[in-house]
Design brief:
mainly alpha, DNA polymerase, domain 1
């Protein structure tokens, strides 16, 4: 394998979209991607793994619900008072920016 004589099959990433996994809420895949980018940037700045900022489950819920107020974001799974104080406004701004003029975002 190291010499390139045998191909190494790699797993293909799951396609994200508005179709939810069984038992999950539909979410905006583009918004989810933007939230993941923000999470990665914040995690890199703090030298922590991205899941320390928020788990994917939290980001999917944000991408499904599009919370735009403090109270709405605090209802999202994994958003504690402490994490909200540290990251909340950055995520709300990203959601607001994405949702400006978007039909997929709920009012």
């Amino acid at each position: 394998m190291l010499r390139g004589e045998h191909p190494v099959p790699l797993a293909k990433p799951k396609e994200e979209g508005l179709v939810p996994a069984e038992g999950a809420e539909a979410y905006d895949a583009e918004l989810f991607f933007r939230l993941r980018q923000l999470r990665k940037m914040l995690a890199d700045l703090e030298h922590v793994p991205p899941f320390i900022v928020f788990q994917d489950l939290s980001l999917r819920e944000m991408a499904a619900r599009c919370p735009r107020t403090d109270a709405e974001l605090l209802k999202v799974y994994g958003v504690s008072e402490r994490k909200f104080a540290r990251y909340g406004q950055k995520f709300i701004r990203t959601i607001e920016k994405h949702c400006a003029g978007q039909e997929t975002c709920r009012e």
